[in-house]
Amino acid sequence: MSKYGSAIVLGLLCALFLVLPAGAAEKVRLAHDDPFPPFTVYKDGRSEGIVIDILQEALKRVNIEPVFIPAHMDKIQDLLKAGDVDGLAFLGINPERRKLYDFSDPLVITGGALFVTSPNPSPAGLKELEGKSVVTPLKGPLAGFIKNQFPKVNVMTVEDYPAALKTVLDGKADAAALNPQVGIQLANQLFPGKFTFPKSVFLEVPLAVTVLKGTHAALLQKVNEGLGSMKKDGTYAKILEKWSSR
């Protein structure tokens, strides 16, 4: 290579280092359910919620910048399977999903609970609903559990939480099986005073960062590292406290 060619190559390398600052954060695309309050919601042009706060802090500690992409809960897993995102900000962990996905450590623990119209009392559990109809989102983690563990309950599926609540309100199902925090927030927003809120959960469900099985193991390891650091210094507890007071 001539001295002029060497000079050109050297110049290009120098320019590259100027464009890419040392220590620049790696970006990852994480899709999230919208709306899914208080965990995630897209509002005024930005994503917010308990999970968003946790992930922003956890990933900042490991030099990763999350790019959050809101999507309808009926479509979010399709985005991941198509490779349009690197992972999901969260998905409820259950045995069926473990066959398809890999998960980080849990970000939060939630569950499945039963919503009935007011002034009916909250059911003590699914056993009480044998011979009756329970509606739940098709892409959620609860339909399979109910069918397997309570085969005498008639399970109906719809596309999302508002549709499940409306199905009960219209008298087409006896109860809705939903995440309790999300169900309460959406019922208050969409149908205030129309539902009796659950007093307990019938199933605990951990929510965790999710990737396709066999991919992005390093990302999950980084999430766990950042999450562990947050829990150790008390930041994690402060985020949960902030949202519980809202």
N-to-C series of helices and strands:
HEEEHEHEHEEEHEHEHEEHH
CATH superfamily of the largest domain: Periplasmic binding protein-like II
The biggest sheet, with number of strands, parallel, antiparallel or mixed sense and barrel status, is:
10 strands, mixed
Intertermini distance: 66 Å
The tally of structural domains comes to 2
Helices, by number, come to: 9
CATH architecture of the largest domain: 3-Layer(aba) Sandwich
The fraction of residues in strands falls at 25-35%
Parts with pLDDT < 50 across at least 5 consecutive residues: 1-20
Q: Can you count the beta strands?
A: 12
CATH topology of the largest domain: D-Maltodextrin-Binding Protein, domain 2
Task: Give me the secondary-structure category.
Answer: alpha/beta
Which overall shape is indicated by the principal axes computed on the Cα atoms?
globular
Assign the CATH class of the largest domain.
Alpha Beta
Overall pLDDT score:
91
Approximate helicity band: 25-40%
Radius of gyration: 22 Å
How would you characterize this protein structure?
With 246 residues, the chain is an alpha/beta fold. Helix content is 38%, strand content 27%. The protein contains 9 helices and 12 strands. The protein has helices at residues 3-19, 50-60, 76-81, 95-98, 142-149, 161-169, 180-190, 217-233, 235-244, and strands spanning 26-33, 41-43, 46-48, 64-71, 87-92, 101-103, 108-117, 133-137, 154-158, 175-178, 195-196, 203-212. A hairpin with a 2-residue loop joins strand 2 and strand 3. Helix 2 packs across helix 8 (217-233). The model is unreliable at 1-20 (pLDDT under 50).
